[in-house]
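WARN retry 2 of 3 for item q-0093 after timeout on previous attempt; input resubmitted unchanged.
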Amino acid sequence: MVYLEYRILTNRPGLLGDITSLIGLLNINICQVSGVSGNWRGFLLDGDEQKINALKTSLTQIDNIEITAIRTPGSLDRIAIKHGTRLSPVNTNPLTYSFVRDELGLLIDFLGEILKETGNIIIGIRGMPRVGKTEASIAGCVNANKRWVLVSSTIIRQNLRNSLAPEESSADCVLLIDGISTTSRGGKRHNALVKEILQWPVPKIIEHPDVFVRDGSFGEVNFDWVIELRRQVGEEINYQDITSSFSAFDIS
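OK item q-0093 returned
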């Protein structure tokens, strides 16, 4: 499978038809095609390497387009094809992506793709209370066909785990940690468990990562991804305006 993406320089009539005809003449199967963010087009193609190379050479001769990608599809490529949106990070250290509530479907697919990966993956989710962080995390786990385990949360009041069953630490699980609940209400046993969990080779999602790092005693935490979720574009995520009362976080 190959992901092909190009930018339209001159959107003349019949351009897409010419390109798909060329792909067909080379006996390459078009598995999926989508408009991607305005003047971009993306394809998932199935063909042998020789035919793909011939297509690449031919497309460079078309003045109306600029080839921007021809590669094995990654998670962001599949999302771009499905949703017609090219996701770009708002920060690169760590990789940070921003979403609003109207894009929950896109966010769930994005999380699902990340959670399909294996190893010690740590994802931080930032956002104000009741914006849908925990719900999106759980839906992302379901999307990735993985079991979600609440280590600490605000969906279930005072849910602070001090131990996990052996099957809850397998690679088929995703561990969900609420940074505010853990740092403000977690006792010694809970904090010891969280510190141990951070080293386990399983995916972890930490809500309120800023508070988790600032108020926790877990040492340096290297986030692989950070996700920001807002009700609308421009909403400020400001923890100074949030009461430290646990009841403020009953629903994420």
